[in-house]
Amino acid sequence: MNASARANKWLTAVTWRRLLRDRPIVPLMGLLAILVLVIELADPGIVSPEWTGVIVRASVPLAILAGCQTLTMLTGGIDLSVAAIGSMAGFVTATLVHSPGGVAEGIIVALAAAALAGLLTGIGVGVFRVHPLIMTLGMSFVVLGLSNVWQLQMVQTGAGVPDSLRWIGSSTLAQVVPYNLLVFIPLTLLILLGLRRTGYGRLLYAIGDNPVAARLSGTRAWQVLIVLYVISAVMAAIAGLLISGLTNTASVSLVDTSLLPAVAAAVIGGTSILGGRGGFGGTIVGALILTVLTALLTVLGLPEPTRQVVFGSIIVVVAAAYTRVTSES
Amino acid sequence: MTATATGLLLEATDVSKIYGAVVALKAASLAVRPGEVHALMGANGAGKSTLVKILTGAVHPDSGRIAVRGRERTVHSPGEARRGGLVSVYQEPSLIPDLDIRANLRLTDTPLEPFRHWLTQLGIENLDLSSMARRLPLATLRIVDLARALAIEPDVLMLDEMTAALPANLTQRVLEAVASHRGGDRSIIFISHRLIEIASVCDRATVLREGETVGVVDVTPGSEERIIELMLGQIAGEMPAVAGRTAAHRASVTTPRISVRGLASGTKLQDVSFELHPGEVLGVVALEGQGQDELFDILAGSQRPSSGELLVDGSAASFRHPADAIRAGLVYVAADRAEALLMQRSVRENIALPFTTRVRRWGLIDLRAERETVDAAVSRLQIDARAGNEVRRLSGGNQQKVTIARWVAGGVRTMLCFDPTRGIDIRTKQQIYLLLRDLAEAGAAVLLYTSELKEVQLVCDRAIVIFGGRVVEEISGTDADEATLLRAAYHLRSDAAMPEAVAAETVAAETVAPRASDAANGPGAEAAPPEQADPETSR
Amino acid sequence: MSAVTAPVGAPPANPARTVMSWAQRSSWAIGLVGLLAILLVFTKIIQPSYGVAGIQGLGISILPLGFAAVAQAVVVIAGGIDLSIGSMMALTSVIAATLMDGQSAEFGLAVVAGVLVLGLVLGAINGALVVVTRVPDIVVTLAMSFVWAGFALLVRAAPGGAASPWLMNLVIGPFGNPWIPKAAIVLVIVVAVIWIPIARSRMGLSLYAVGSNQLAAFRSGVPIGRTKIVAYALTGLFAAVGGLALTASTSIGTPVPGPYTLESVAAVVLGGVSLAGGRGGVFGPVVAVMVLQIIQNDMTFLSFDPNFALVAQGVILIGVLILGSVLESRRARR
Ligand SMILES: Nc1ncnc2c1ncn2[C@@H]1O[C@H](COP(=O)(O)OP(=O)(O)O)[C@@H](O)[C@H]1O
Ligand SMILES: [Mg+2]
C-alpha cells in the first residue's frame, strides 16, 4: 500500500469518527439501510410499502417512549416511570369508555393523571434532588399500585379499548401509512424544534452538560426539571394510548416490555446517559433500527431468545463506538 | 552501576502532555540527585502537578523519557510507582473519603508504627484512626497523607504544594520532617510557591514556565531573584501600560453601583465594606482564604451572607440564587473554567446561555439576532472559535474568553471577576486587561480579585486589601505596586517590624512579583477537571 | 500566617468513641432493624394470630429479593449499578432447574457449584465490558440484561424443571425452633460467609475505595479496572445464589426475569447504600427487603387492597430519599 492510499484510509477513518461524533444520525441511517438490505436479501420481496407501514407503525410508540428517555437523559436523568404511566393511560381510558364523557373523558383523565405523576416526579428530582433513577422508579411503583387498585374498582363496569384509539393506533391509510403518524409527526416536530430552537431546549442540554455552569448562568434547574418530567409523563401516556390501540389490549403492565428497549433506542440514537449530548432525530432512527432488527430476526427464523441476545450485543457495540469517538483522544 | 554513571536518582527528559487543546507540558526535564531536596517552581498552570503525576504514573505522558537510577522506566500506575519507591503527596488529598484512616493505611500497605511516628513528628497527636477521612479538616488530611508517604520511606518523595493549606506551625513541622527525611539516598521533590520555604530546605530548584523547563538553579542566598526571573520570563517586559484612567473622578459623583456594608459570612468573612462605582475597576487583593471566595459567592448569588448589607444602585438587594444577582446586573466570571462552561456544547450555546434562563425566554430563539450578538462578542474578544463545535476543544485562553464573552454579549453593568487570568497565556491575559478597562470606560463597574499582583497596577483604579475577612486597606491604583500590596496583604504596616519569616518572603517578592495567593494556595483552588474527562482513571 | 485557623487533629481515640463512631456509621442499619422490630410488634397487634406460619412465609418470600438486594448492594458500593441482576437470576435459575430435574442429590450439588461459578463468570463479563468499553455501567448492564434473559429463554422456553429435594429442604421450613425460618438462616449465612471475609480484606477496602472516590483510589494504588470486575463478579455470584433461591423456593425454573432488578435498586437505596457509591453495607438492604415485605403483609391484614403495598413501597422510597436530602441540606446550611 502506498503512502497516499494509507493517508486516504486514515482520512476516511477520521471522517467517520467525526461523523459519528457530530452527526450520528448519518451512520445510523446507514446501519438502518444495511438492516433493510439484509432483510430483503433474506426474504426477497418482503420490503414493500406495506411492510414499511408495519415497521413504522410499530416504531412510533417505541420512538415516543424513547423520546421520554432522550429528553430526560439530556439532563443527566432517566425516566423509568414511562412504562407504568403509559400502561396506566391506556388502561384508564379503556375503563372509562362507558363513562358519560366517553373516550374524550378517558383520554383527558389519563393525560391529567400522567401529568400529575410527572409533576410529582419533577418536584422530587428538581426540588428535593432525589436521584432521577430512584424517583421515577418510586413513582412507577406508586402508579402501578394505584392502577391495580383502579383495576379492582373497575372490574364490574366492563372495559374495552375504544374504537377511536384502535383506529389511530393500528389503522393505516391505503395499507401503508399508519394513522399514528398523525400524532407522531406533530409531536416530533415539536420536540425537534423545542430542542434546537427554543431557550428551554438549550437549558436541557446545559443542565446535563454542567449543572454548576448552568446555575451560575442563572438557570433555575428545578423549573426546567419539573416541566421536563411533566412533558415526559404526558409523552409516555400518549405512547401508552397508541400501544393500547395497536394491540387492542388494556392492562396495567402493557408497556412494561417497551421500557428497556426505549432506553436502548435512545442510547443507540446517540444520546449520552451522562447528559448534554444527543437529540431526538437519532432516537427515532434508533427505534426504527430496533424494530427492523426484530423483524429481521423473525424473518431469519431466529426465535425470541436470539433476538434478545442480538439486541443486547448491538447496544453494547454501538454505545462503545460512541464512547470511543466522543472521548477526547 | 548505571546509577553511579549518571549519578542521578530520578531523571525526566523532554516530557510532554497535551489535554485536548491545552498543553500542560511541552518539554519538561528534571534531574534529581540522590539525597537532595529539589524544588519544582513555576507559576500556576506551569505544569508542576502534571509533571509529578507523570513521574508517579498517575498520568501517562505523550512523549519523553523517565529514568530511575539511570534505568529507563515506564511507570503505569501510582501503585507501581509506590512499589518502585516513588511516592507523591498530590495536591488534592488522596485519602478515600468514605474509609477511616486505618482502612486508608491498609489500602496502601502502610505500616502503622512508622506512620504514628511521623504523625507525631508532624505535630498531630491523638488522631483517632477510626475517624472517617471525610470528617477530618483539610489540614489534617494533608498531614495524614504526608505521614502515610513518609512511613514507607520512599526513595523519592514528591510534595505538591504540601504546605499551601497548612497553618504556620504545621508548615514548620513539615519543613523539619523534610529536612530529616532526606539524606542517604533519599530525595524529595518539593513544590511550593513560598520562597522562604524553598530557601530553607531545598538544595536546587528546577523552574517550569508554560510547560517547559527554563532553568535549574542552585538554591543559595540570593538565588530567589534568579528563580523568579525564570518563572516570569519576559512577562514584566511585555505588559502594556493600561493608559488613561479617567474613572477616578467620575466615581465620586454617581451613586455607587454596589455598596457593601459590614458583610459577613461564617468565620471567613468578618466585616467587609466598600463601594464600587460605575466606570471603575476595583481590585481585591488578599492572600488565599481571607474571605474573598465568600465575598464573591455572596455578590454572585451563590451564597447568602450571615449579616451585613448589600445595596445595588442604592437599593437593598438580597440574592437567593445566581439568577437574582444576574438580574440585578451582577455577573460573575470564575477562575475555574470547568465550573463555567458547557464543555460538550458549542461556543455559541455557551455564550448565549444566560439569554434563555428566564422562563419567559424559554420560547423560540431568534436565531439571527442571537448569531449577531454572539458573533459580535466573539470578535470583540477575539475568540478563535475554529474548534467551536465543542468548547472543550478550545485552548484554555479561548475558553476563558468564552466565559467572559457570555456576559459581554448581553451588556455588562457590573462584572465580578475572580482571578480571571489564572493559568492562561500572556497574550490572552493582556486582551482581558484591555477588555476590563474598555468595559469600565464604557461605564461598567468591575470588581477584580486577582492573585497576580502586577495586574492591580495595570488594570485597577484602586484596590482594597482583605485580611482575615476584613478590609484592612485601600490603595489607589497608581500606588499599588507589588511591594505595597504584599505588605498590605500580610497586614503589615510599612513602619512596623515584620516577623522574620514574612520579611524574607516579602523581600523576595519585592524583587519581582509572585502571585500573592500562590503563597498560600489551597488545593481546591486549581481547576479540577471534570470527573469523566479525567484521563488518569479512564485508561 | 493565619490562613488556616481550623483546629487541627482529631479528638483522642477511646473505646466509647469507637463504639459511637461505629453506631454513627451504621445508624441507618440500626434504625432499619428498629423499624423491623416495631413492624413485627405492630403486625402481632393487628393480627394476633400472626405467628409461626407468618414468620415462615416471610422468610421464604424475601429470599430471592434478599439475595438480589445483596447483589445490587455490592456493585453499588463499588460505584456501579447492575440492571442485569434479574436476568442473571432467571438464567441461573433455569439452568439449575433444568439440570437438576430428575437427577441425584450429588449431581444436584455439582449443579449448584457449577451455577455459582457461572454467576461469577456472568458478572465478570458484565464488569469487563464496563471496564473495557468505558460505556456507563447502566447502559452496559441494561444491554446485558437482554443478553442474559435471551440465554435464559434459550435454555428453557417455558417455566419448568425441578429443584433437587435437598435444595428445597434447605430453605423451606423451620430451623430447630419453629420461629426461625431456614430461609432467613440461609440468607444470613450465605451472605455472611461470602461477604464478611471479602469486606475485611484488601479487596473489600478496594471496592469501597473505588466507589467512594475513583481518583483517590487510583492514586492510592488500587487497580480500578480489576476491582470493578471483581465487584461485578460478586454481584453475579449473589445473583446466582438468588437464582438458586428462586428455584429452591418455587421448585421450578422460570426463564422470564422477575421484578428483581428494579426492586433490588429500591431495596439497596432504602438499605442505606448511597447510589453515589462508597457508603453502606449489604445487611441494610436485606433488612429493607424484610421491612417492605412486612409492610405488604400488614396491608393484607389491615384488609387494605394489597396493591397499596406497592404504592406504599414507592412512597416510602421517595419519602426516605426526600427526607435524606432535606436533612443533608439542613446540615450543609449549618
Ligand atoms: N486533566 C486535565 N485536563 C485538562 N487540562 C489540564 C488537566 N490537568 C491539567 N491541565 C492543564 O494543564 C496545565 C498545567 O496544570 P498543572 O500541572 O496543574 O499546573 P501547576 O501544578 O503548575 O499549577 C494547566 O493549564 C491546566 O489547566
Ligand atoms: Mg499544581
Please provide a written account of the structure.
The complex is a heterotrimer of chains A (329), B (539) and C (334). Chain A has a single domain (26-327), classed as ABC transporter involved in vitamin B12 uptake, BtuC. In chain A, 76% of the residues lie in helices and 1% in strands. Chain A contains 14 helices and two strands. Chain A has a two-stranded antiparallel ribbon. In chain A, strand 1 (172-173) and strand 2 (177-178) form a beta hairpin. The longest helix of chain A has 27 residues, at 221-247. Chain B is of the alpha/beta class. Chain B folds into two domains: 10-235, P-loop containing nucleotide triphosphate hydrolases (Rossmann fold, 3-Layer(aba) Sandwich), CATH 3.40.50; 264-520, 3-Layer(aba) Sandwich (Rossmann fold). In chain B, strands 6-7-8-3-9-10 form a six-stranded mixed β-sheet, sandwiched between helices. In chain B, strand 9 and strand 10 (212-218) form a beta hairpin. The model of chain B is unreliable at 1-5 and 494-539 (pLDDT under 50). Chain C has 334 residues and is mainly α. Chain C has 14 helices and two strands, in the order H-H-H-H-H-H-H-E-E-H-H-H-H-H-H-H. Chain C has helices at 15-25, 27-46, 52-77, 85-100, 105-133, 137-155, 165-171, 182-200, 202-212, 214-219, 224-250, 260-270, 283-301, 307-333, and strands at residues 174-175, 177-181. In chain C, strands 1-2 form a two-stranded antiparallel ribbon. Chains in contact: A-B, A-C, B-C. At the B-C interface, helix 3, helix 4 and helix 6 of B face helix 1, helix 9 and helix 10 of C. The structure holds adenosine-5'-diphosphate and magnesium ion.
